[in-house]
Amino acid sequence: MMNFDKNKECFTVNKDFDNNIPNFTRRKKALKIILFLLVISLIILAVQLFYIDNLSYLQGNLTIINSFLAFILLFLYIILTADMYVTINRIKEREKVEVPNEFRVDAFKQTYFIVLDTVILIIFIFILVLSVVFKIGVFEIIFSLFGIAIFSYFLSAMIKSRKYSLEVQNRNIKVLYKNQEIEVLEIKDIPFVAFFGSGKEKVKKGDYPIMEICNIKGEILRIPLSLRNYWLMKKYFLKYAVEISDTYEN
């Protein structure tokens, strides 16, 4: 059997990708204003630098302030433009993803996060060893044991979840663990699917998507996904009108 969490409730919110296309109207207006202010600031700065030898102490300070302002405006313009460009390209890539009748989805490997958690776990073990050897105190021992327990759990969960994969054939989904079939789900037995970021409720940059499939028994299969597989699986479930809750929306 799959490793399901039965103690979760399913909240249904039906969404599709059309509801997740950003409106860049305000962004473009803001970029025009920033660009206008940047041009004005650079013109003033050019004049100030041309007469730099004749500037008073106050005018010199104003030149420094204007230089800093021009740098901030340029930085904002580049960041906002780049973010908009990346988002538009991501939407284009998302639209290219098509749902075939048969496909395979492997769990996201989370290698970076596993390495990071391993390093933190080693640090906690090191703190524990030092606390015991040098008899630093009970608090340090309890603190390190708590940290070891928490990060050992996270590591175990990530290592286990990366071994899942799905083989989709039309309305049937084969669940594999270490490439061994452990369950077959039919689309009619899946009333609800949730997508969210690895940061749980608050999705931030760098979070990867996680999918939870809820069956009619109330069992839940959780599997981390790459961005492309997130798009693919969401389109697949939308195709068959499965209820979807998506707080990742990328």
Provide a brief overview of the structure:
The protein is an alpha+beta fold and 250 residues long. It has helices at residues 25-50, 57-96, 111-133, 138-161, 227-239, and strands spanning 102-106, 164-169, 172-177, 180-186, 192-197, 209-214, 220-224, 243-246.
Oligomer: single chain
The biggest sheet, with number of strands, parallel, antiparallel or mixed sense and barrel status, is: 4 strands, antiparallel
Broad structural category: alpha+beta
Rg (C-alpha, Å): 26 Å
Write down how many β-strands occur, each being a DSSP E stretch of 2 or more residues: 8
CA-CA gap between termini: 31 Å
Mean pLDDT: 85
Report the uncertain regions. Answer: 1-15
Q: Give the overall form.
A: flat
Q: Number of helical runs?
A: 5
Percentage of residues in strands: 15-25%
Q: Determine the fraction of residues in helical runs and give it as a percent range.
A: 40-55%
Strand line-up in the sheet with most strands: 1-2-3-4
User: Could you state the order of secondary-structure elements as H and E?
Assistant: HHEHHEEEEEEHE
Provide keyphrases for this structure:
single chain; alpha+beta; 4-stranded antiparallel sheet; 4-stranded mixed sheet
Structure description:
Strands 1-2-3-4 form a four-stranded antiparallel sheet, with no helix packed on it. The chain has a four-stranded mixed sheet with strand order 7-6-5-8, covered by helices on one side. It has helices spanning 25-50, 57-96, 111-133, 138-161, 227-239, and strands at residues 102-106, 164-169, 172-177, 180-186, 192-197, 209-214, 220-224, 243-246. The chain is built from five helices and eight strands, in the order ααβααββββββαβ. The radius of gyration is 26 Å and the shape is flat. Helices cover 50% and strands 18% of the residues. The protein is an alpha+beta fold.
